Amino acid sequence: MGKLTAEAVVDRMVPQTPRVSPDGRWVVFASAPVGHPGEHPVSGLWLAPADGSEPPRAFADAAAEDREPRWSADSAWVYFLSDRAGRGTAQLHRAGLDGVPEQLTDWRTGVTGFVLPDGGAVVLVAPEEKEAAADPRVQVVPSGSGSTWDTVARPDRLWLLDPSTRAVRPLGDFGARHVVEAAARPDGHTLAVLTWSVADREPGLYDSGLHLVDPATGARQDLGVPALEAESLTWWRDDTGWRLAYLGLTPPGPISGRAIFDADGHRNLTAGMSVCPVDLASAGDGRLLALFAEGLDTTIRRLDPAGGTFAELGRATGSLLDLSAGGDRIAVVASTATKPETVHCGSPGGPLIRLGEPQPGGIRWGSQERLSYRAEDGLELDGLLILPAGRTRADGPFPLVTLVHGGPYDRYADRFQLGWFRQGQWLAAAGFAVFLPNPRGGLGHGHAFAASVAGDAGGAEFTDILTGIDLLVEAGVADEDRLGIGGGSHGGFVAAWAVTQTDRFKAAVVNAGIADWPLLAATGEHGRYDLALGGRENSPITYAGRIATPVLIVHGENDTNVPLSQAELLHHALRDRPHEFVVYPREGHSLRERGHQLDYLHRTRAWFSDLLA
After folding, report:
1. Sheet holding 231-238: strands in order across?
2. What single-letter DSSP state applies at residue 177?
3. Would you list the DSSP string of 27-70?
4. Among 47-61, 134-148, 434-448, 520-534, which is the least confidently predicted range?
5. According to the per-residue pLDDT averaged within each range, which of 174-188, 204-218, 459-473 is highest?
C-alpha cells in the first residue's frame, strides 16, 4: 500500500459538469486538479461513449482552463469556455467529435457564460467591451430601496452570436441589471433569464428578477421576483407544454432549506418534503429530474406532474453531483467512502456505469462509518466517523478531531472525504479518528431542520456536535483527553465558538471563520443571511477572554465572503495566549493555489499532532 502524501491530495484530478449528448451516445466532462499548479487554474475536457465501451479520452486538449462544456442540439458540436487564447480571459470555443477546437469569440472582457438555443445561434453572457469605468466606485441609495453599488460597465449582458459570421449583437434590454444565468427552452423560442439589481453581492443586498426573452426579437416578459438565492433555471414539459423550474430558498428565509419552484407563480414544488434538492435537469422526454440530498445519501427523482410529487427512480449511497440528461441517459459525478469522484452514466433508474477509473489508487483508506444518533431534544441526526487507516474500533480510544462543515446549509454525505479542505482521510492517515457531524441547520433533512438555526448559531447545533462526541467517548472510540475541533467558514465559527464555551478541546483550527456576526453582516457578501444567523450574544469575540485552547487561525487575504477583519479580531483578542495566525496572500474564501493547499494540509495536521499527541 502506498503512502498518502499532501501532493497526492491536491494533485488528484476531480471530474465535474458531465454533459450527455442529446442523442444519448456521448458524455463530455471537465476534469481539474484540486489545486492550481500556477497563476491560473488548469482543467481539461474528456469525451467518453455513454455506454462505457471505451475509456474517456482527452478532448480539445490544451494547457488552459477548459470548462462548461455543452452540446449542440444535433450532438455534432461541443461548445465550451477556454482561456487558451489568453490566460485568465475565457472565450467561447467549439469542437466536433474529432476534438479539433475552433475559437468563436475574441471578447476583450471575456465571456462569462453561454446558452445554445436550437437554431444555430449562440447566446453569450458577457459584460460590455467598452473600457472599464474610472474610479471611484459610487454607492447609490435610492429612496425606498436597498443600498446598491453603481456597477456601470461591469454588469453582464446578453448577446447573440452568429457562429458562421462571428457577428455579435445585443439581445434584450435589462437596463442596469446584471444577467446571472440564462437557459434556452428546448424548442429555441424562449430564453429564461435570471438577473440581479447589481453585479456584486456587497453588502449582501440585491434584488433578483426572472424574465423571459424572445431570442429573435429581444422582447422581454417579466415573471416577478423569484425565491431567494434562485439558480439552476431548468425547462421541463408536461401535458400543457413547456414549464420553467428553478432552485431557491424556502420562504420566509433567508435561513431555510432549498426547494424546487415553478416559475409560474413561484410555487414550491417540494413543500413538505423532508429532503433537499441539490440539482435539476430536463430528461430526454422533457420530464423534470432532480437530485435530492437525503441524509447521508442521494436520490434521483422525477416529477409526476399529475400528482405533483417527486417519485424516486434510484438511490445512491454517498454523493451524486452535476446531473445532466440526454436521450434516455443521465450522467452524474459520483463517489463513495473509499472510491473517489468519477463520472457515471446510465438510465435514470440505474444501473449507472462508471466511465473511467477513479484516482488515486493503491492507498489504504481509513474505514468510514455511518452514524445515527439523537440530539438532547430527540432530533434525529447523522454523521460520519473515519477511523485511522488500518485500525478498528477495538484499537481505540484514539485522538479525535471533529471537523464541522460550512454553510451552515451543507452536509457530510457518505462520500470520499479527501481534499485540502475535506481532510477526513488526510487526518485518518496520521492516526486520528475523525468525526464529521451533520448538526441541525444543514442540508438533507428538509426546511424545518435547515431553518432551526436562525438566530441561534452556536446554540443547539453546537450541542448536537457535543452529543456526538460524548457518544464516541462512551463507546471507547475517542480519547476524552485528546479532542480537537476545526472547520472552515461557518465550521470555522463553530470551532471558534467551541473554545469559548468549553476547555474540552486541546486544539482548534479556525479557517475563514466568523468572530463577530454584526461586523460580518456589515462587511461580508451575505449581509442579510449573516444578520439572521447571529448577533453579539453568539459571537466568539464576545467571549474571547475565556479561550484557553491553542487556536490555529487561517484566512485568505482577499476573502470577501468572510473578510480578513474577522481573523484579525480573533488574533488581537487572543494577544499573548497560545495561537498561530496565518494569512494566505491572493486567496479568497477558499484556498486555490497548490502551494497554499499543501501548506494548509501540513500545517493543520502538525497542529493537531503536536497538541493531541
Report:
1. 231-238, 241-249, 258-262, 267-268
2. P
3. EEEEEEESSBSSSS--BEEEEEETTSSS--EEES--SSBEEEEE
4. 134-148
5. 459-473
> pLDDT band for position 144 (50/70/90)?
very low
Q: What is the pLDDT of residues 272-296, one digit of tens each?
A: 999 999 999 999 899 999 999 999 9
Hey, which bits of 376-432 come out as E strands?
Answer: 380-386, 398-404
Q: Could you write out the DSSP letters of every residue in 473-522? A: HHTTSEEEEEEEEEEETHHHHHHHHHHHH-S-EEEEEEES--S-HHHHHH
Output 83 or 202, whichever has higher pLDDT: 83
Phi then psi for residue 588, to 5 deg, are: -100, -140
pLDDT of residue 201: 66
Supply 139's cell numbers. Answer: 454607492
Please say if the pLDDT value at position 161 is more than 70. Answer: yes
- Strand pairing category for 398-404 and 478-488: parallel
Please check whether residue 524 is in contact with residue 530, taking contact to mean a CB–CB distance below 8 angstroms: yes
Instruction: Give CA–CA dist 180/231, Å, rounded.
Output: 9
Q: What is the pTM of this model?
A: 0.94
Query: Are 159 and 215 a contacting pair, CB within 8 Å?
Result: no
**The pairing of beta strand 148-149 with beta strand 139-140:** antiparallel
> How many whole angstroms from its chain centre is CA 587?
17
Can you tell me whether residue 127 is helix, strand or coil?
strand
CB atoms within 10 A of CB 598: 19
Q: In this structure, what are the phi and psi dihedrals at residue 269, rounded to the nearest 5 degrees?
A: -85, -10
DSSP-derived letter for residue 460 is H
Q: Is 132 exposed, middle or buried (0-12, 13-18, 19+ CB in 10 A)?
A: exposed
* Helix (H), strand (E) at residue 574: helix 564-574
Handedness of CA 579, 585, 590, 591 (dihedral sign): negative
CB 21 within 8 A of CB 50: yes
- CA nearest to 544, candidates 511, 567, 561: 567
pLDDT, mean over the chain: 93
3-class DSSP string for 62-114: CCCEEEEEEECCCCCCEEEEECCCCCCCCEEEEECCCCCEEECCCCCCCCCEE
Q: Which amino acid is at 208?
A: S
CA dist 522 → 39, 519, 560 (Å): 31, 5, 12
Query: Which residues sit opposite 15 in a β-bridge?
Result: 31
> In the Cβ-directed half-sphere of 428, how many Cα atoms lie within 13 Å?
31
- Domains, the chain, in order of start with CATH, read 368-612 (3.40.50.1820)
**The C-alpha cell that represents 186 in the structure block:** 428546448
C-alpha cell at 346: 446510465
Q: Hey, which residues does 551 pair with through a beta bridge? A: 508, 579
Contact status, residue 127 vs residue 168, Cβ threshold 8 Å: no
Report d(CA 499, CA 546) in Å as an integer.
8
- Cα–Cα distance, 490 to 496 (Å, whole number): 10
Q: Dihedral sign, CA of 374, 427, 512, 181?
A: negative
